[in-house]
Structure formats: C-alpha cells, structure tokens
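Review this fold:
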Amino acid sequence: MQILSGITLLAIVFAVLSSGSQSVASPTLPAASSAVGWPNQPGVKITREYPRDENGMRTALVRYKSIDAFLKCTTKRSQHTAEIQAISALSTDFHHSSHIGFPTLLDLFSTGDGYHCIITKQIAGASLREYVAQLSREEKGSFLQNFALTAILAVMHMHERKVIHGNINPDNIIIQPTTVSKNVFKVLFTGFEGSQPTSRSQTPSILGARGYAPPEDYFNAAVDQRKRDTWMLGATFFFVTNGIPPYGFAHSKTKGTFPPVSEDRLLRTMMKAEKAGKNSFPRIKTNRKGLLDLMERFLTYKAEDRVNIDLLTEDDLMVLVDDELDAKDSLLERTWAKLKSKMPRKKISGRQVKSPQDTDAWHEYQGNDGNQDTPLLASK
C-alpha cells in the first residue's frame, strides 16, 4: 500500500496550515457535473463524484496512486484546516483496532479554482444511517448498547486528544461489520470539517446537521463544545431508537414518513422549549432502562445540567451491559474480555461483570496498548 511517509505528510500539513461521508455503501446518487480533468492533480483519478452539498463541498471516490481513496474539497479554508488538524491528531490512534477508527490522511492540496482538498483512505462499510436501516426493531436495541459504548469511548478519546468533533450525526459515522454477527463491528468517525480544538471557555459552533445540534446553538453565540458533542452523540443514539433526530422532523400522517419541518417551524419549536426550559421531542423508543437513563442524561435540555461525556465513570458505562444476555453472547462481554483490567471488578445483579477496562476497546482508548499509568476514565 502506497501512502505518504510520516515526515512528508507532516511537512505538507505544516505548509498548508501555515498558508493560511466516505462510506463505500453510500446510496446511489447521480454524478455531479465537473470540469474536465478536475481536480487536475497527478495520481488522482475520480471514479465517482457526488453532488455538491448545501455548503458547496465536493466529494468523490478516487484512485490515488493505485489506492482506493476518498476526496473532499471545500472553498472554506478554516474548515479544511480544522479537518487536517483533527485527522492529524487522531489518524494513527487505533490503527490496528478492531473497534474504533478514524480517517487516514493520504494527501492534501489546493486547486486552481479555489478548492482546498484532502484525500483519505477509503473506508469500507456503511454509514450508521444505512446500517441501522438493515436492522429489525429487536436488533436495534442490542446494537445500540454495543455501539454506544464504543462511540462514547471514541468521543472521549477525541477530547483527550484536544479535538472537538463538532458535527456528530449518523452520516459521519461508518459501521464496518464483520462476518460474525450484526453486533460485531468497528465504529469509525469521519466528517471533521466542523472540528475545533478543545477549550475550557465557550466557543462558537461551526457546523451542525439539522436535528442534531443542541438547543443552546439556537440562542447562544458561544457554547460549551464538550457538552455540545455530548448532545449530538445522544441525538445520534436517538436516531437509532426513533428513526429521526430529536428535533427538525415531523410525522406525515398522509405519507407515513418524517419529512423535515420548515426553518420557521423548527425555530418556533426551539423557542417554546427554551421558554419551558425542557425538551419537547418524542419519547425515546427503548425499553432498556440503563440505555434510556444514559440517553436522557446526554439529551438534558440545559447545557449546564447535561452530563459532560469526559466525566463519565465506570459505573456510568456499566448500564450498557445487558444482564439478560449470556456472557458468551454479549459483545460487550466478549470485547471486555480481551483487555487487562485496570479497575477492580464489580458485581451487577449478583454476578461478576468485567469492567470497561477489561476490553480491547478500553486498552486501545487508554493509549493504544493500555500502557498509560493512569486511567483516563476515572471511577469517581
């Protein structure tokens, strides 16, 4: 496999910074028109170009020096820079993980017509939106518990690396399944163009998909970005249980679908919720109490009362263990069994249960081999 050397890549990143969904299983879309030969870069051949999004971003599947890759181009230099910084901070983490992953940066350049582009290694798999559509209602509950633990650890790791994702939603998460079962998979986070460095102070938000941005985005110029990531991950869990995000969509009785509401209606809904000081979205459709309680904490209306995902404890994550499943059939149990424990084991419902730190995902999160002396997730 041909990729840039670490020294070469860092040199390119430095030069660009100083100067100022990529799932294979994507839905079939008509090719977007483009100038002949665009982006006119040696070694880059577009194999499939997608329509530009509402922000003018251009994306395509490409062959890059014999490698299947993904091209993303924007005219917004700040978003381009943010994505480079985030991927550079995360791309080598979990490189050999079977649980968590991030894009691998191959190249970056600017075009003659004002686009700033990155090329990342193509990720095989389906977006979370596409993957969930294949699951039955019963399968979704088990999937979500397993997915939630992995996704939470991934976001905690981003924050530990001083990276705010900034645009978590079902289209920016890729599920890479295995042949074992639908509940054995790898979770890869993409879409870091809304990223920014973590900060103790509140900062303005950059991007947010309809329905997944938190309430405070509608009323405050600057917000707690860690709490914002927490909400967006909770809204993504809500999508798995309910098929839509908490806000921005409404049921059409005539069509039996959930089309987006108008911007005016969405704003009126958020203003009513703000006046009441509480959420007005539909009930969360799950009968798993532990999962429900955790989602409600993630989706607490007022940011100051919302849990900070970085401060979750071992006990918080233990609610994702399904006591009704035999240990051999639980993905969490099988995953946890591959790790060395850094915490005392605890009993739940009278039986011994491995802690989150007994898992491969945990050791990968802890420093990619579990070699850190102090756990990042402290039992409090």
